[in-house]
Write a structure and sequence with these properties.
It is a single chain. This protein has helices at about 10-20, 25-35, 50-65, 85-95, 115-125, 130-140, 155-160, 165-175, 190-200, 230-240, 255-265, 280-290, 325-330, 355-365, 395-400, 400-410, 430-440, and strands at about 40-45, 75-80, 105-110, 125-130, 150-155, 180-185, 205-210, 220-225, 245-250, 270-275, 295-300, 315-320, 340-350, 370, 420-425, 430. The protein is globular. The strands form three sheets. The protein has a seven-stranded parallel sheet, with helices on both faces. Strands 10-11-9-12-13-8-14 form a seven-stranded parallel sheet, with helices on both faces. The chain has a two-stranded antiparallel ribbon with strand order 15-16. It has 17 helices and 16 strands. By secondary structure, the protein is an alpha/beta fold. It folds into three domains: about 5-210, P-loop containing nucleotide triphosphate hydrolases (Rossmann fold, 3-Layer(aba) Sandwich); about 220-380, P-loop containing nucleotide triphosphate hydrolases (Rossmann fold, 3-Layer(aba) Sandwich); about 390-440, no CATH class.
Length: about 450
């Protein structure tokens, strides 16, 4: 099937063609006709299957056909998204597909100044994409009027649930007109989402393009069994092989995202981190640099698991295994998008064996275990592991030049003219290379 067979108007078809989109994805093929008939929809689709266009195209077309160019602009469509990254992505999609329509789209989210957002609202918009917190804040300040709203989209509903936004969503639903067309999309369908859908949808059409909670077959998945202290060296080893064009690396915590990023930069790999402690400007800059190939690696926490849309992302690497099996699917779904293949690599330490078992049970697949990789130990000290003493005995320095090199590379010693590498209290040399240089000077 072609987009031309879906009764899509010429200006939108022109935008789709300029982006290289000729054939609808399965979710688009199923959802677009339903939404053009004005029916509510409950959509189940994995990330990367094109569901943003599935609801954006019908909304754009209906607004274009029913909106006068000279009428006062009111918010007629509202899209709720769980994260700032996803909200920005959805707004960009509306702008791309509707660039020949003359409709106004705005996005609002927290973490940045509200002034540019309120100025856009004051000028008048047709479509608003928002995260729940900032939306309620601006509603309470009197900046938003929902009286003319016709279309309501709740995207990534299960993620809303995970992030504790359900109560905010319920508050927003009470503020919008009851006479509306509602669209709820979710990658997974837990019972809480089913209950929510029953309360906000009217005689919905259920569309599903894949069995819920299954991974995409286009993604090649494998796992390396590695100790925690060797993970950073394994990551560097894989990145320096030259077979990874771009990689989104997931860590469990913000602190480790920063540590891993610093370790990669220290060995000449272009990388940046993106997580909740970063400012919105910093996150957008890092994402932009990643998309434009200025950096090879983006290190992220799960806040970015569904907010990054990059068609040609070659690899997702799980530096830490996720504690929730469903999160594994969302993470690897960042690759293998828009019809392209992808690769997902996971690191599993002995402490994470239980998490691996849960993931394999959840996806009904035993991940391919890659053969052991020889690691020299050169990069181990770039990330200091907890409970590991930084003091080395003289014999350890003499027997492992690579370890000594790693230590001095990560923490360079500023050598003074009279510096003595012998530690009098501990009665040992604390740096073998410095000891040799010191003795040479004494001669």
């Amino acid at each position: 099937m072609k987009f031309t067979e879906l009764n899509i108007i010429e200006p939108i078809l022109k935008s789709l063609q300029s982006e290289g989109y000729l054939e609808p994805s399965p979710i688009q093929e199923l959802a677009i006709p339903v939404l053009m008939e004005g029916k509510d929809i409950l959509g189940s689709a994995q990330t990367g299957t094109g569901k943003t266009a599935a609801f954006a195209i019908p909304i754009l077309q209906e607004l274009y056909q029913t909106t006068s160019k000279h009428e006062t602009r009111y918010i007629k469509a509202l899209v709720l998204a769980p994260t700032r990254e996803l909200a920005s992505q959805i707004k960009d999609s509306f702008s791309t597909y509707g660039k020949h329509l003359g409709l106004r789209v705005a996005v609002i989210f927290g973490g940045v100044s509200q002034r540019p957002q309120t100025e856009a609202l004051f000028k008048g918009i047709d479509i608003l994409v928002a995260t729940p917190g900032r939306l309620l804040d601006l509603v309470n300040q009197g900046f938003i009027d929902f009286s003319k709203l016709k279309y309501f989209v709740l995207d990534e509903a299960d993620r809303m649930l995970d992030m504790g936004f359900v109560k905010d969503v319920e508050k927003i639903i009470k503020l919008i007109p009851k006479q509306r067309q509602t669209m709820l999309f979710s990658a997974t369908m837990p019972k809480e989402i089913i209950a929510l859908s029953q309360s906000i949808l009217k005689d919905p059409i259920r569309v599903s393009v894949k069995p819920v909670e299954t991974t995409l077959e286009v993604i090649e998945q494998s796992i390396y069994k590695v100790t925690k202290k060797d993970k950073v060296e394994l990551l560097i080893h894989l990145l320096k092989k030259g077979t990874i064009d771009s990689a989104l690396v997931f860590t469990r915590t913000k602190q480790w995202a920063n540590k891993v990023t610093k370790a990669l930069v220290a060995v000449g790999i272009k990388a940046e981190a993106i997580h909740g402690n970063k400012s919105q400007n910093a996150r957008e800059k890092a994402l932009s640099n990643f998309k434009s190939k200025q950096i090879q690696v983006l290190v992220a926490t799960d806040i970015a698991a569904r907010g990054i849309d990059i068609d040609l992302l070659s690899h997702v690497i799980n530096y830490d295994l996720p504690e929730v099996p469903e999160t594994y699917i969302h993470r690897i779904g960042r690759t293998g998008r828009a019809g392209f293949s992808g690769t997902a690599i996971s690191f599993c330490s002995p402490e994470e064996a239980g998490l691996l078992k849960d993931i394999e049970k959840h996806i009904h697949l035993n991940l391919k275990v890659e053969k052991d990789v020889y690691l020299s130990g050169t990069y181990k000290s770039l990330i200091q592991q907890p409970n590991v003493s930084s003091h080395k005995s003289p014999s350890s320095h003499q027997n492992s030049k690579s370890k000594s090199y790693a230590k001095t590379a990560a923490q360079p010693v500023i050598e003074s003219k009279h510096q003595n590498p012998y530690h009098a209290k501990k009665k040992k040399y604390w740096d073998q290379e410095l000891k040799n240089r010191y003795k040479a000077k004494q001669k």
